[in-house]
């Protein structure tokens, strides 16, 4: 019955029980301003006895801070993102912040929706892995209105923001060098490569030269292709364009299809650009009746949990997911906790190194 509903204690109730003013109770429970030790002790005991809970919405209106961040990723179910999310949440919780999480399913429309909802909740900043570098006006508008953005994994090049990324080019170069050192000269590569049109891939391969970090492409799969090409150039090995599989989309089905095309050109080794590409490539390898590493050496650019349990265990490049999450959260908390009179904080651009986990999927030729 309505009359039996438990009434939530208010700040007025706490002030009355502690025999202090509402303003004094507010300062004590909000940890701002001066309150004498004796009065604060009475207020805290009264709040505990009444099971008082702060009205966070009201507090954010007063302080201008919601103690909340937004986080936008493309697929919560992927190990890479779920591990980063876990790290962000744990770090923020330890510093008194909570995190609202939105899954876009690679949709810019949903990303815009998420940003609008976060703005309604007056979040203190967002962590985002953008869905598309060509449609990022909503992120630019958020930044121009005073919002703080930390981009992870994928980064819109001209967005005024902080960034936390793996050094993708260096990591892919290390993976490819490993295969070359094992004697492989026909190394396949499977990635989305959405920024490279199918008709221009061969031209790109023939004319591309190492580029500066400032001109790095948006998608990690393209950055990793540069590393793959770098390692071949260093070794004086010409790359066959037929050994590069471009899926054009983030799909294990597309990866399976492209891997099948690459396998028709007899690679002796294969490097996949991420975990979903690895899943699709494994399906194609099984369908072709090939054995790892006897018929095909393999490196996955993502250390998925199951890779250590297959026979043989698969060599993989492990992302520093915990560090990515911690660094992104640290940057936002540092910005949110700055004093009103503090000088503007410069944007941080953090490049992290992962590690190559060597197992049993590479055969010496």
How are the strands of the biggest sheet laid out side by side?
2-1-3-4-5-11
The major pleated sheet works out as: 6 strands, parallel
Order of helices and strands: HHHHEHEHEHEEHEHHEHEHEEHEE
* Structural class based on helices, strands and sheet pairing: alpha/beta
Count of DSSP H/I helices:
13
The average pLDDT value, as a whole number, equals 88
Measured distance between first and last alpha carbons = 78 Å
- Shape summary: elongated
**What proportion of the residues is helical, as a percent range?**
40-55%
Q: Low-confidence parts lasting 5 or more residues at pLDDT below 50?
A: 1-5, 210-215
Q: Bin the strand percentage.
A: 5-15%
Whole-angstrom Rg: 26 Å
Number of strands: 12
Question: What does this protein look like?
Answer:
This protein is an alpha/beta fold and 365 residues long. The protein has 13 helices and twelve strands. The chain has helices at 11-18, 22-30, 37-49, 56-63, 79-94, 108-120, 137-144, 168-181, 201-207, 220-235, 252-263, 275-287, 321-336, and strands spanning 68-73, 98-103, 126-128, 149-152, 162-166, 187-191, 244-246, 269-272, 297-300, 315-318, 349-352, 355-357. The strands form two sheets. It has a six-stranded parallel beta sheet, with helices on both faces. The chain has a six-stranded mixed beta sheet with strand order 7-6-8-9-10-12, sandwiched between helices. Strand 3 (126-128), helix 7 (137-144) and strand 4 (149-152) form a beta-alpha-beta unit. Helix 5 runs parallel beside helix 13 (321-336) and helix 8 (168-181) crosses helix 10 (220-235). The longest helix has 16 residues, at 79-94. The chain is elongated. Mean pLDDT is 88; it is low at 1-5 and 210-215.
């Amino acid at each position: 019955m309505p009359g039996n509903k438990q009434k939530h204690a208010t700040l007025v109730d706490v002030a009355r029980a502690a025999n202090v003013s509402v303003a004094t109770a507010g300062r004590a429970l909000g940890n701002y301003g001066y309150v004498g030790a004796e009065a604060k002790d009475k207020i805290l005991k009264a709040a505990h006895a009444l099971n008082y809970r702060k009205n966070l919405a009201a507090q954010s209106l007063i302080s201008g801070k919601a103690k909340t961040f937004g986080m936008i990723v493309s697929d919560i179910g992927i190990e890479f993102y779920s591990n980063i999310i876990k790290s962000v949440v744990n770090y923020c919780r330890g510093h008194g912040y909570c995190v609202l999480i939105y899954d876009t399913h690679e949709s810019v429309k949903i990303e815009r929706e998420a940003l609008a909802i976060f703005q309604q909740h007056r979040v203190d900043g967002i962590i985002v892995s953008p869905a598309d570098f060509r449609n990022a006006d909503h992120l630019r508008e958020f930044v121009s209105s005073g919002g703080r953005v930390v981009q992870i994994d994928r980064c819109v090049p001209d967005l005024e923001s902080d960034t936390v990324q793996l050094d993708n080019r260096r990591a892919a170069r290390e993976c490819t060098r490993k295969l070359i050192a094992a004697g492989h000269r026909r190394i396949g590569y499977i990635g989305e490569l959405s920024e490279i049109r199918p008709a221009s891939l061969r031209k790109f391969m023939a004319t591309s030269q190492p580029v500066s970090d400032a001109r790095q492409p948006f998608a990690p799969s393209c950055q990793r292709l540069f590393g793959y090409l770098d390692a071949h150039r260093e070794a004086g090995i010409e790359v066959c364009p037929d050994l590069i599989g471009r899926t054009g989309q983030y799909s294990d089905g597309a990866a399976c299809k492209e891997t099948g095309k690459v396998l028709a050109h007899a690679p002796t080794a294969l490097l996949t650009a991420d975990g979903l590409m690895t899943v699709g490539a494994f399906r194609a390898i099984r369908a072709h009746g090939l054995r790892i590493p006897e018929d095909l050496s393999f490196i996955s650019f993502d250390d998925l949990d199951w890779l250590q349990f297959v026979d043989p265990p698969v060599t993989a490049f492990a992302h520093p997911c915990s560090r990515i999450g911690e660094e992104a959260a640290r940057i936002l908390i540092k910005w949110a906790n700055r004093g009103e009179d503090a000088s503007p904080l410069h944007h941080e651009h953090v490049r992290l190194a992962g590690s190559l986990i060597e197992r049993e999927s590479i055969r010496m030729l």
